[in-house]
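Reply to dn_fold:

You asked what the input looked like. This is it:
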Amino acid sequence: MPVEITRNDTFTKKTDSSAYIKAMEDTVSEVSQKTMSECQSECPVRTGNLRDSHSVESDGMEATIRNSAEYWMYVVYGTSRMSANNYPQRAWNTIISQDMIGEIFKNKLKENGIDTE
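and this is what came back:
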């Protein structure tokens, strides 16, 4: 059974444009900032150092959320004397469950002049 694949030139023009790429990059940046904020609200606080040590590095389609506190891995993965507190995963699950990414992307497309209807 042959399958015919045709190219949709309207869609190709939209997705190949620099405005589309900018919308994707802006989405990555905003989602990473929201995820970092959610990490800060989910992390345990004794002195505030762990919470305040989060940062985001965003470069195009990639973003990294870091924590410069020397002990972050003990909090996240636990030790023989302390159970794990995987607050980064809970933060990401919150972002996903609220379906923020799709809404942010739609808004960024509109901001960059791409019709989403």
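The first strand starts at residue 54 and ends at 59.
Hope that clears it up.
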